[in-house]
Design a protein that fits this description.
Alpha-Beta Plaits, 2 domains, 245 residues, 10-stranded mixed beta sheet, 20% helix, alpha+beta, globular, 5 helices
């Protein structure tokens, strides 16, 4: 009898070319697939909730796969971890409804972005935060973040190379907080476009640098024009925190 197993996965994306399996490069999906093969003998490609980019990290990526293995669902957690490298960990495993799909069943996601704002780079945060040397206007960034909340067309905040036709998304949370030299941005929404969070953060950092006024966010949402926005923040400061079902 085939069962549907849901995994919650934590990983450091520094050494992977993103979640999705690609030819001749290491991916989280393929690494997990190889671990499942070692454990069950089955050739299975698990489905992920989000295709995180190269260098992006996750505390709460979700995947599911179908198996004929008799291993108890909760035992997949320790069993798979014995076959995974130290930078990928299964946090939990459970049997779910046959119709559950990690991506298509998702109701929303929580992303976090971390900026290290100090003159000197960090050895600890080198691949885990975006180092911005110059002083930033934190209050301007906080003001800018509020323009994202609500249901809008985020066409201006979507990178090229997509086949998306509907750019409307609802953002429930968009907020910054400061912890010492770390500026931490949390956003929750029903879904996010390609590179959307990184473009949001890059634009807000440019606002913090004084390059733009906070109102540039509102204008970009209204016009859908990408031209007047800031840089795309690097991937290594981004974390997929949780997927909601």
């Amino acid at each position: 009898m085939e069962r549907n197993i849901k995994l919650t996965i934590e990983y450091d994306g520094s050494h992977y070319h993103g979640w999705q399996c690609q030819k001749d490069v290491a991916s989280v999906q393929e690494t997990l697939s190889k671990a499942i093969k070692k454990l069950t003998g089955e050739d299975i490609m698990p489905e992920g909730a989000g295709r995180t980019d190269e260098g992006v990290h996750a505390y709460g990526q979700v995947a599911n796969f179908r198996t004929k293995s008799s291993i108890p669902a909760e035992k997949f957690t320790p069993a798979l971890n014995t076959h995974l490298p130290e930078d990928i960990v299964i946090v939990s495993s459970e049997e779910v409804d046959p119709n559950f799909h990690a991506r298509f069943s998702a109701k929303g996601k929580h992303y976090r972005y971390i900026v290290l704002n100090r003159p000197q780079r960090s050895a600890i945060w080198a691949k885990r935060a975006w180092h911005v040397r110059g002083e930033l206007d934190f209050e301007a960034m906080v003001k800018a973040s509020q323009y994202f909340v609500g249901r809008h067309s985020f066409k201006a905040f979507c990178a090229s190379g997509h086949n998306i036709k509907n750019f409307e998304r609802t953002i429930f949370l968009s907020q910054w907080r400061r912890e010492g030299d770390l500026l931490i941005f949390d956003t929750k929404g029903e879904g996010f476009l390609y590179n959307m969070v990184r473009i949001m953060v890059g634009t807000m950092v440019d606002i913090g640098k004084g390059r733009f006024k906070p109102e540039v966010i509102k204008e970009a949402i209204e016009t859908g024009e990408r031209n007047n926005l800031g840089v795309t923040a690097p991937p290594y400061g981004l974390y997929l925190m949780e997927v909601y079902y």
